[in-house]
Structures are given as structure tokens and as C-alpha cells.
Write a structure and sequence with these properties.
163 residues; alpha/beta; Rossmann fold; 5 helices; 4 strands; globular; Ptyr_pPase; Tyr_phospatase_low_mol_wt; protein tyrosine phosphatase activity
Amino acid sequence: MTYRVCFVCTGNICRSPMAESVFRARVAEAGLEGLVEADSGGTGGWHEGDPADPRAVSVLAERGYESGHTARQFTPSWFGRLDLVVALDSGHLKALRRLAPTARDAAKVRLLRSWDPDAGDDPDVPDPYYGGRDGFEECLEMVEAASTGLLAAVRDQVEERTA
């Protein structure tokens, strides 16, 4: 049975597609393709149907990540098919938990940086949209740092299911 992870930010054109791309690469490197799927969405539908922000695409490409993406809005119906919903900041965490149809669904929502031991007291990946390219680079660094711990946690879940 496939373990499904969905990354969620505001408009699904910057942070969550970056997290999805990085995590897909980590899954492939770990040989977990077919066992783990990554997806992404936004809490709002402003950019639905749009590609990822060109700055996000550029930063991802420079680090060797694939970035084919079309923005979508996260809806409550998605919870039923997901094992883990990864929020990129505290606002998304709250919004997603409010959207959750059940307490069990709300428990699926976690902050990305909760898997980064160096995140300290700042659990949020800041929105780079209104800034320059350096914000996208910082975002990618935070996503990469958290993805290692996230992959380890997901691998444990996959191993429990297949044991």
C-alpha cells in the first residue's frame, strides 16, 4: 500500500512545490519509489492551474531537482487518501487542521520543519513570493534540511506497514 504525503503552502506555487520536488528526489534516492508518493496543494485557489513560480523552478533546477508542476487547491476530501499532510508554516497548520473532517485527519497534519533538528524556535518556512531570489534559495535550504528527517519518519511508517 502506497504511503501518500502532501505538502501545503498558501498558493501552491513556491514552497509546497519545492518541498514536493525535494521529497520526491529523496524518495527516489532511498529506493522507495512505488512505496511513497508526494503531492502538493495550496490553502487558497488563487494560482490554481498555474505553473510553479519561475524563481522556484530556477532554484530547483540549479540544484538538480525536477519541477514540473501545476498549482491546485487542497480540499478536505484529500484527507481520505493521504497519510501525512505537511504544512509549510504555522498558518497553514491551523488552516489545515480546521479543514480536517475528523480528529484523525487533523492528526495527519504536521509542520515540515518539525523534522529539522536545527529549526530551533522558528517552525515556519517563510514565504519567498514577495521577495527576491535569495528568499527562494533560503526556502530550498530549509526544505532540504527538513527532508532528511521527514524521509526517515516516512521510511519507518512504510516499514511498519510492510512488516
